[in-house]
Amino acid sequence: MTRSLPRLRVRFVHLTALWAYGVSQPTFALLKGNPDLLLARDATWSDVALFAALVTLVPPTLAIGYVWLAGRFSRWVGDVLYLALLGACLVPVAARVVKLVDPGLAMALALIAIVAAAGVAAYVKSRAARLFLGYSIVLPLAGVAWFAHGLPTLSEDAQAASVRVTSDVPVVFLVLDELPVSSLMTPAGEIDAVRYPNFARLAGQSTWYPNATTVHEWTSDAIPALLSGRVGRVSTLPTADHHPETLFSLLGRDYRLEVDETMTQLCPRSLCRRERGSILENGFGLLRDGWRLVVPRTMPASVANTIVRVNSDILLESDSARSLGDFTRFVGGISRDDPDRTLYYSHLFLPHAPWMYLPSGTRYDFRGIDGWSPEEYWEDDAWLVLQGYQRHLLQVGYVDSLLGRFLDRLERTGLFDRALVVVVADHGASFRSGEGRRPVSDHNVADIAGVPMFVKLPGQRRGALDSRAARTTDLVPTVADVLDVRLPWRADGRSLLQRAGGRNEVLVAQRGAAVTRIPVETLIRDRQETLRGMAEAFGVGRASLYEIGTNTQLLGKDVEGAGRVSTTPEIEIDNADELAHAQLDSGYLPVRISGRVTSGRIDPGVELAVALDGRVVALTRCFDRNGTQRFRAMVPESALREGLNRVDVFAVGTDGSRTGLVWLGASSGRS
Questions:
Q1: Which residues of 480-516 are buried (b: 16+ CB within 10 A; e: fewer)?
Q2: Letter string b/e over residues 357-367, b meaning 16 or more CB atoms within 10 A of that residue's CB
Q3: Cα-to-chain-centroid distance, residue 512
Q4: Engineering a disulfide at 180: which of 176, 385, 424, 428 sits with its beta carbon 3.0 to 4.6 angstroms away?
Q5: Residue-wise DSSP of 557-588
Q6: Which CA distances in Å does 99 have to 95, 105, 205, 377, 383?
Q7: pLDDT at 655 (0 to 100)
C-alpha cells in the first residue's frame, strides 16, 4: 500500500497544502476580518510574519520531521505514521463539512473520523488526489502574502493638535466596557443605591445623563467616536493613524497624559508610552488567539465546546485580568503631586464578559456562557439568558466597588473637586432570548445604546439630573468648552454646557455602516420594559440577585429528611472536588455549581433545588448540551464554608413544597 506514496519532500508539500485548507487559511481569514486581535497585541510586521510562519510551516515541518525519524528505523512505520498525520490534517477539513449538520458530539466525531479516513484512502489510491495537493501548495504561499499585504500593524502615528490650552483644569476619564445604564437603575428610574452605592455616590456629586446613548455597538468604533466627537462613517481600526484627531491629540501639546488604553491605541506613540511584549510572546499570543477564534467557527459546536476553554466571546479571561491590573496601577499612580495640566484616561475592560467576578472581587469558574452563540446571539431559552443576566449584574457589583476605589483616590489626592471628571461606558448589552447580545436590532437597541454617563464639572459639589438625549460624542466638545479651547476639527457632538434641545432620536451605527435610528421616547419606553423585567426576575437588593426561579419560597429552607432517594434520574456534580476543599480566603470560590444528568432524564421545565449543607441556596433548570442534560446555579459566597461543602440536588415537585422535593444526587454522599 505504501509503495505509491511520494518522496519526503513531496510529502511535506502535501501536508503543508492540506494544513492550509484546514487551519492556516481559515485562521488568516478570521484574523483579517478581526484585526482588533492584532491591535490588542500591538502587532508589528515582525510579529505578523512570525505568526504566519508558525501557523503555516511549523506543524507540517514537525510532522514531516517525525515521519523522517520513524522512517530511519522502519520504512513501513514511517509510511503509516505519515498517513496518520495526513489524516490528522484532514480532520479540520472534515470538521467543517460535519459542522453543516452537527449531529451531536459522538456522531460528529464518528463522521469526522469517517470523512478523514476516506480522504486518506483517496490519497493513497488516486494519483489525481496527490497531484491536486501538490498544485495546492500555491494556497499557503498566496495566503501568507494576502494576510500580510495591507494588514494594519500600527506602523503609522499622529501628532498633537496645533492648539494651545491655557486652562489648568485636570481632566479625568474613566470608560467602562459593555454596561447598559438599565443595569444600574430601579424601575423608578433612579440609580440602585443598594446594589451599586458608588454609582449612586457619583450621581450625587455630578450630572447624570440617564438618556445618554452610545453611537456604535462595538468597542472598536464606539471608543474612537467617544474620544473624537465624531460618528465614524465606516469601521476602521481604533488606532491613532486612523483617528488622528482625538482628546489625546487635543491636549497632548500642553497636558501630561496618563493613559491606560484597552483594545484601542488612539493615543499617539509620540505622546503615550506603551509597553509591548517580545516578538515571541506576541507571535505565540496571536497563535493562541487564532486557535480560540477558529475552533468555534470551523468545527461543529458539539466538538468545539469540548476542546476550547473559552466562552463564545473571543475576549478572554487574560484580557480582563490584564485590564484589571492596568487599572489598579493607573489608580495607584494618581498623585497629589501631579501637575494640574494632566489628562487621566483609563478604559476598564469590565463588566464586559467573561463574567467571572462576584461583587466582592472573588473569582469563580466563568467557563461557558450557556445559551450564547459565537455569533453573539442568545438562544431561545429564557432561563439561560436569565442566568447570563444574573452573572452580568453580579460583575457590575464588582465594577461598583472598583469605582469606589477610583473615587476615593481622586478625593484623597484633592483631584476630584478641581477636575473635570467623566465616567461613561462605551456601549451596553442586551439580555433577551433569541436576540443579539451586542448586534443591534429594533428590539434590543435601547439595551445596547443606553449607557451610564456622568460628568462632574470643576468645583461641582451637588448632583444634578439632565434628561436630554445626550450622546457619547458630546463629551469631547464638552471638554473643549470647559477648557475654553476650540476644537480644530468638526465634531458631530455638541457641548453639554449648551442648552439642551433639538435632538429627538437615538442612532447606533453597526458594522457594515448600517445605522439603527429610534425616537428617544421609544428608547425610554423600551428601557422601562427592561427595568420591569429585571425587577420581576431579581427583586430588590444585593442578595436578591441569587433569588431567581419560580419556587423562591424554598430558598433558605432546611432539607434534611426531605424528599426520597431516587434511582432515576441521577445527577453528578462537576466541581465536587472544589466544593470539598473550599478556601474562603483564596480569592476563588466554587460558587457556580454545575452538574449533569447521568441516568434517566429530567422533564423540561422541572425546577431543581440546590442545597448546600442541608439548606436550599439556589434554584435552576436543566438544559441540553451535546446530547447531555446539564445544569448550573450561582450560590451566594456566604453559603460556603471552609473545607468540605456538601451539595444536594432535588427536583421540585408540582406543589413547590419542601416535602415534594425529590433527591437526585449529592457531591459527597448523603447522610
A1: bbbbebebeeebbbbbbeeeeeeeeebbbbbeeeeeb
A2: bbbeebbbbbe
A3: 21
A4: 428
A5: -B-TT-S-B-SSSEEEETTHHHHHTB-TTSSB
A6: 6, 11, 54, 18, 26
A7: 80
Q: How many CB atoms lie within 10 A of CB 580?
A: 16
User: What confidence tens digit (pLDDT) does each residue in 591-637 have?
Assistant: 999 999 998 999 988 999 999 999 999 999 999 987 889 999 999 99
What are the φ and ψ backbone dihedral angles of 487, each rounded to 5 degrees? -60, 130
pLDDT tens per residue across span 160-214: 667 889 999 999 999 999 999 999 999 999 999 999 999 999 999 999 999 999 9
Angle at 333 (CA atoms; ends 329, 338), nearest 5 degrees: 160
* Beta strands 342-351; 171-177: pairing state: parallel
* CA dist., res. 185 & res. 527, Å (int): 10
Q: Which of 647, 621, 645 is nearest to 633 (CA)?
A: 621
DSSP-derived secondary structure letter, 602: P
Query: What is the Cα–Cα distance from 423 to 173, expressed in whole angstroms?
Result: 6
Read off the C-alpha cell for 50: 512570525
CA 554 – CA 633 distance, rounded (Å): 15
Is the peptide bond preceding residue 458 cis, with omega within 30 degrees of 0?
no
Q: Give the global pTM.
A: 0.84
Backbone angles phi, psi at 623, to 5 degrees: -140, 155
Q: What φ, ψ does residue 596 adopt, rounded to 5°?
A: -145, 155
